[in-house]
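job 3f2a | input accepted
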Amino acid sequence: MNVRDSFRLAVLTLFFGTAVAQGFDSMPEYRPQQQVSGVIRISGDYHEQTMLTNWEQEFHKYQPKVLFHNNLTSTVHGIPALVFNVADIGLLGREIAPLEDLSFRRMFKYEPFEIITATGSFDTQYEAFAIGVFVNKENPLSRITLPQLAAIFGCGPGKSIRTWGQLGLTGAWADKPIHVFGYPTGNNIAAFFELKVLQAPPSGGPTLPNGARWNCNLKEYSNTYDQNDKPVIASDAFMMQDLGKDKYAIAYSGIHEKTNQVKTLALSTTDSAPYIPFTQETVANRTYPLVRSMYLYLNRAPAKHLDPKIAEFLQFILSRQGQESVAKQSVFLPLTATAVGEQLKKLQ
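job 3f2a | predicted structure (348 res):
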C-alpha cells in the first residue's frame, strides 16, 4: 500500500466513525410505497458511475421491475438531456451553471428540480472536492470570514481588502499587499467560489443579483494537458508551489496538493459565527462552509407529482440504505441525517 492509499484508508476510517456517530441510524429506512416498473433514463456526470451503480443494484432488490438506462458522458450533458427529454434524471458533479439554468427555464418557464444526493469529496482531484483557503506557513493569520474573503478576492461595491493590515496583522505585515491566487474565472471551481463567497452578502441573506467581480490582480492557475486533452499537472500543484514561496499570498484551492510550506485557515460564515477548521471530519459532517455537493435534477413542474418510479428511486437515495450505498465507494461522502431530512422535504 502506497502513501496515497494509506492516507485514503485513514480518511475513510475517520469518516465512517463520524457517519455512525451522526447517524445512518437516524436516517429513514427505505420502504416501498408501491411496486413500480419501467425504465429510468439517467444522463450526466461519469464520475458518479460507481455511486450510481451501487444505488441501482441496491434499489433493484426492492423494485425488481425498474430498469435503468445510463448515459454518463459528462456533467455538461445532464441539463440538456432534460431539456430535450432524452433523460428523466440529470446527474451533475457541480452546481448548475447559469446558462444551463437559463436554458431550462426558457424551455419550460420554471426552475429545474434540484436534489442533493451526496457530499463531494474531501481531497480527490477532479471530484467535487471541498475548497480550502491557504496562506504561507509564515503568515500569522489562522482564521478568516467569508465576507473578508469576498473583500480580498472580489472587486466592486463594498469594502475591499488589499493589505494584510486590514485583516489585523501588525508590524512588518501591516502595509504588505495581499497577493491573490486562484483558479481561472469561469471554471466550475471558480463558479462555486463566486456563489458561496463573492455573491454571498455579509448578513447571510440571499445571493447578490448582479454576479461577481474578481480582484483585478488575481493570479489564475490552470491545469497542463497532454495531446489527448488529459490533465498532466493540476493547477493546484502550481498554486501551492508558488504560495510556499510567497509569504504575502493567499489562495483558495483543494487540499490534495497541500505542501508543508502552506497552511489552511479556519473559516466562518460571519463575524459572529464559529470558525470551522478544514478537516475530513468537518467536510463529512458538512459544517465546513466550503463543502461541495453532488446533485441530480429533474423536470418537475410546480405542484405536479413525480413519476412514481422516480419518486421511489429518490426516496431510496435519501434513505439509510441509499446513503450506505454512497459509503461503499471511496470518493464521495454520504449526507448527514440532517441533510437527508432537508432534501426529503423537497419531495413532499
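job 3f2a | The first helix runs from residue 3 to 22.
job 3f2a | closed
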